[in-house]
User: Fold ZAD domain-containing protein from Timema bartmani.
Amino acid sequence: MVSEDEIPTRTFRFPTPETRLCRLCSANEGVEYIFEQKEHYLASKIMAISSIKLWKGDGLSEFICADCDILLEKFYDFRIHCEATDVTLRAEFLQT
Assistant:
């Protein structure tokens, strides 16, 4: 049996809201706040294209870097395009 002293422990240091790290890649330069109103909240777009769940005050970084912002916009636009194409194709080819 393993004693309590033999069990490895980890200390987690959670970032404060002031930590200016990119929420997606951990970069620390050129970051912007993800809960600012742009076209849509960046946070909503992140959740739309990924399985990441985030909300203001969740204890993790609330920033995104410029590189991830560019990729996020491309991925989000691609998702919207795919969904629009799906609607068009279904309407055209699956008519009853």
User: Anything to note?
Assistant: Residues 66-93 form the longest helix (28 residues). The chain has one domain: 14-93. The chain has two helices and two strands. Residues 5 and 69 are 45 Å apart (CA to CA).
